[in-house]
Request: fold
Amino acid sequence: ATATATAGANGHSSASSARNDGGVVGGGGPGVSAGLPLVALRERGSAAQVLASLAAFQHLVSGPDLLPGESILFQDRRVSYACSAAFDPHAIERSIGAASAQQQPEPVLAVAGELLCTTYQLVFSPYSVSTYEDHCGSATDSKVVRVPLALANRLVLTGSANDTLQVHCKTLMRHAFVFEGTSRRRRAERLQAAIREHGQPGRRGFTRLYAFAHLQALRRLSVAQASAAQRPWFVWQIEQEFRRQGVLPSSLWRLSRANLRYELCASYPALLLVPAHITDAQLLRSSAYRGKGRLPSLSWRHPTNGASVIRCAQPRAGLTGGRCAEDELLVSSILTTAGARVSASQLVDADMLSHLTVVDARDPASAIANRVFRGAGHEDAAGGYDARLLFLGIPNMHAVSSAANKLASLLHDGRSLHSSSYLVQLHETQWLQHLSALLQGARQMAERVAMGESVLLHCSDGWDRTPQLASLVQLMLDPHFRTLRGFMELLDREWLSFGHQFHLRGSVGQSQSSGFSPIFLQFMDACRTLRALHAQHYEFNEEALREVLEHSMAARFGTFLLDSEKARIRHRLPELTASLWSSMLSEERRSSFCNQHYHPCSTQLIPTAHALSVCSLSVWTEAYLQQK
Reply:
């Protein structure tokens, strides 16, 4: 019972029925004669509830709208979506009151409905919208549950007959589908196999991800529509951004093409802004001294005091504390050139240049361990430039992954959520502690830069904690990045162009790998925290954060696929896939990601230490518990 329904000429399609055992349909929505239970019409409730249930039933009768290139694999009409009060974003507040009143935890409920499995997503449509609303706590207008297949992290068959499939998502959401009627186990296994085939094809089946079929279908519909879906594919342009920062135009800088073929550093962009007097040969020697070839590069320059944010990877210092003259020259040249004022192509005010702080995101023990076992380590404070050394002690990817797993288990366990020890268990996950450490580190850096101190930032390899901190600092200091377009440019530069490993860290297109860690999810949680402190001064809303978070792993767009600019160019992703940025910036969608109460603020917004302490932070329930 494989599907034959695909998106039609208008970009959508409704599928036709073909009855199978156990309520399974191979393609399309069931007709009226299928005898679906009109539960809501027999329930007592308001007219609004009845109308909402009728709307949901109409959705089942007519079939769902499909995205271009999306095909139906099968439908199952005898499935329940298991949920409890744990799925209610307000359950945390209620649980504390319930525990104090010694009330019993709310039972797990299974809402009956229809499950549709396509080549892109799972779509669960409840028969009774009012029941779903009462027990699953969704605050959205649509009560349909949509789960992109590529978001699945773990698939667990449970139940006495293995008739329940739990889908653990990379966004910490968890879903459970309970199959009823005949052949329950076989149908649950069929769903599990479909998710693995289309959502986790692995590296060899990379091109089977939905993102490739999506743009092909758009091209069949309309060349103009497909072209619009790809523009802009890159929102960050190096020359344009440094013109905005006031660094260019200047004879003191040049755009180096030493990495045009990605031979200098495979995880860096093709073009690099460097001081004009630094040669490509010197860049090569600096690259050889830095881990993974990730040499120092200017990220941001303060518009008034000239202080710089420079990012790189750890040095290859080793046990002997080795140094590199070319690397020290590159760093000091960036500082001097960025902090200078240009007058007739001459440097002036050189004596007013800020000092440098080398910020190591790790703790000292980790840095020393890297020196002993990897021949790497950290800079010597007595190096070739006036520098202070600051260790932030931010936990690594393994600690973040462990904390995320514990948090997800806690939030989706109704018994723990309603326990009087909930807050103790939340503390034990360490999630908020790690989040606070990240935000406090960014605050310390922002304060130093605001006071005129430049920072040279790295962790180990410079592609996890480094982009987190560099991006958060710029959010605090630069109002441009608090606009929707500016935020996209920030992500495009610090995360995509400078090589955060989205494919590895997000296990995109595959089951959880050893390199999986929700680094980007933690960063988006930190952005949500900063935005909540000054919501009126951010043009983008929380929905924009959730949209980016989902599609960083959902494989509908090519923007976040693979691990570097080099890999995306080699696999021709700008030609073969659509852009998330073009979708979010389109006339039809842009307003849904904008804050209606936005009030631009041209000043820096550096939170207090107390505002970023653990006791001031909260769990992002709208993302981790509530269906988007």
